[in-house]
Automatic annotation (TrEMBL):
Oligomer and partners: Homotetramer.
Residue positions of the active site: E274
Name of this protein: Aldehyde dehydrogenase
InterPro entries referenced in this protein's UniProt entry, alphabetically: Ald_DH/histidinol_DH, Ald_DH_C, Ald_DH_CS_CYS, Ald_DH_CS_GLU, Ald_DH_N, Aldehyde_DH_dom
Species for this entry: Halococcus salifodinae DSM 8989
Family: Belongs to the aldehyde dehydrogenase family.
Keywords noted in UniProt: Oxidoreductase
Record Pfam families: Aldedh
Keyword Oxidoreductase listed: yes
Length: 506
């Protein structure tokens, strides 16, 4: 199993030095503060949280653990920031959001390196994240101009119209798997719609967001954007339950999402939830084998499997199952696992020892129910990375579908392969999970793909590809994968409320 289970292990000196040098170049201050009303300030409490480099297991920085009083300050500041933002014209807001995109684009490589260091994702993937951050700010800069009201047909002595107004102050809570990208998914539409924000990043990965603020703080009014680092059950709960926070947007586990929904109910605020998944990828008999393998590798192993939409259940038609599974396992073996700061690396470590242990637990569960490990499920052999949180790409076949390993989110690089022959039975199994976030289909036949896309219960379906997130394409889940959609045009609307005006016409 992964070396993470040996706490005394150390990465090699070469890796440690590379990471220390990157940390010195990229992190302005290794004792992070909260960002409230345009200033870097200390928490009113004294609790700290340590941020670790998942490649070496060594400490990178220390953040402050925000508490109720810090959230209170941030919310008050945000209402002041909202007033200034609300005074700006939509065209002025558009210019500022476009300028944010430009600033981040100019420093793409630094932000990518920072996320590679803090999250452990390989540089090649981190660069994709930052490209998408830029794309999102550009898209929502434009979308700001599209918010329109309506005129409602009425009696002759009445004129009814609706306008869309921002909520005022919204709270946002994000996870660690795409640190700056998840911040952009949340911030860009909220600001474009005219809101001010209090955002709590994940405990594990605040570094790129802090650098983002350093980069853009001269562009935005004080209080418009406030960052409170801290633990979920404290700072997160406080934000969710705050009576003057009018909406909560949350991305993370389904379990915590359920609690967020209950917490938001106390003050009846609007919510959007982007939660877990157990997404299927279906390989039809007419699929081109090489392309199918490529799509399946991307679907499962992108970001070390730490994607809510990862294609973790691979349904392969019986006519090609043996050949496909072997090719897929060989391709999984060929993934270059290693130091995310090296160009050649295709998969880095997982985020934390907790996530390694969770993945290992599911591999054991798969074996216990009769699953056969086709590849992986063993120790990383590169001793230079001994201190890191690595899990080797793993492929399992033969685990029954109605078992925990086939039903629950693993969030690690573990693929379960299922053989199928009858289409009706396939769709029954595909939909036989509580989640409904995403799915993939590989076939050369358009009727086949359209029919399957219609039959699958999921919010996002990729055909002959996977993991594409261009701004403008709505993303969100069916069933227990969430509520609401992000990154599409409707998202900006979801950060507004409707006001109806009824005029008496004499
Ligand atoms: N949908 C997605 O993109 C993600 C899903 N996950 C899933 O969640 C599992 C656990 O990972 P975690 O990091 O523990 O996820 P989590 O759901 O605990 O954390 C996500 C965010 O929610 C915050 N949070 C935690 N408890 C909270 C509470 N009571 N009130 C308000 N905010 C709270 C955290 O501080 C973090 O910012 C993973 O194994 C994976 O299955 C994790 C990260 C992202
Ligand atoms: N949570 C957004 C993207 C993903 O995890 O796949």
């Amino acid at each position: 199993m992964a070396p993470n289970s040996q706490p005394s292990a150390e990465s090699s000196q070469e890796v440690i030095e590379r990471h220390e040098q990157a940390a010195q170049e990229l992190i302005q201050d290794r004792e992070l503060q909260l960002y409230i009303e345009g200033e870097w300030v200390d928490s009113t409490g004294s609790e700290l949280l340590d941020i670790y480099d998942p490649t070496t297991g060594r400490k990178l920085a220390t953040a402050q653990a925000g508490n109720d009083a810090d959230i209170e300050r941030a919310v008050t500041a945000a209402w002041r920031g909202f007033e200034t933002w609300d005074d700006k014209s939509v065209a002025q807001r558009q210019v500022i959001l476009s300028e944010i995109a430009k600033r981040i684009e100019a420093r793409q490589e630094e932000f990518a390196r920072l996320d590679a260091l803090d999250n452990g994702k390989p540089l090649v993937e981190a660069r994709d994240d930052i490209d998408l951050v830029v794309d999102h700010f550009r898209y929502f800069a434009g979308a700001a101009r599209t918010l329109e009201g309506t005129t409602i047909p009425a009696e002759n002595d009445q004129h009814i119209e609706t306008v869309r107004e921002p909520y005022g102050v919204v709270g946002q809570i994000i996870p660690w798997n795409f640190p700056l990208l998840m911040a952009a998914w949340k911030l860009a539409p909220a600001l474009a719609a005219g809101n001010a924000v209090v955002l709590k990043p994940a405990e594990e990965t605040p570094l790129s967001l802090v650098e983002f603020i350093h980069e853009i703080d001269d562009l935005i009014p004080d209080g418009l954007l406030n960052i409170v680092t801290g633990y979920g059950p404290e700072a997160g709960t406080s934000l969710v339950e705050h009576p003057r926070v009018r909406k909560i947007a949350f991305t993370g586990s389904t379990e915590v999402g359920r609690g967020v929904m209950k917490g938001a109910a106390n003050t009846l605020k609007d919510i959007s939830l982007e939660l877990g998944g157990k997404s299927p990828l279906i390989i039809f008999p007419d699929a081109a084998l090489d392309r199918a393998v490529e799509v399946a590798i991307d679907a499962m192993f992108y970001n070390a499997g730490e994607c809510c939409c990862a294609g973790t259940r691979l349904f392969v038609h019986e006519s090609l199952c043996d050949e496909f599974t072997q090719k897929f396992a060989d391709a999984a073996d060929d993934i270059v696992l290693g130091d995310p700061l090296l160009e050649k690396t295709e998969m880095g470590p997982k985020i934390s020892p907790r996530q390694v242990q969770r993945t290992e637990r599911y591999i054991r569960l798969a074996e216990e129910v009769g699953g056969r490990i086709v590849t992986g499920g063993k120790q990383l052999e590169d001793g230079r990375l001994a201190g890191g949180y690595f899990v080797v790409p793993t492929v399992v076949e033969g685990a029954p579908h109605r078992t925990r390993v086939a039903q629950e989110e693993i969030f690690g690089p573990v693929e379960l392969v299922f053989e199928w022959s009858d289409y009706g039975n396939l769709i029954d199994r595909v939909n036989d999970v509580s989640f409904g976030l995403a799915a993939g289909i590989v076939s050369e036949n358009i009727s086949t793909t359209r029919r399957a896309a219609r039959d699958i219960e999921a919010g996002n379906i990729w055909v002959n590809q996977y993991n594409e997130f261009p701004a403008g394409q709505p993303f969100g889940g069916y069933k227990q994968s969430g509520i609401g959609r992000e990154i599409g045009k409707e998202t900006i609307k979801a950060y507004t409320q409707t006001k109806t005006l009824n005029f008496k016409v004499d």
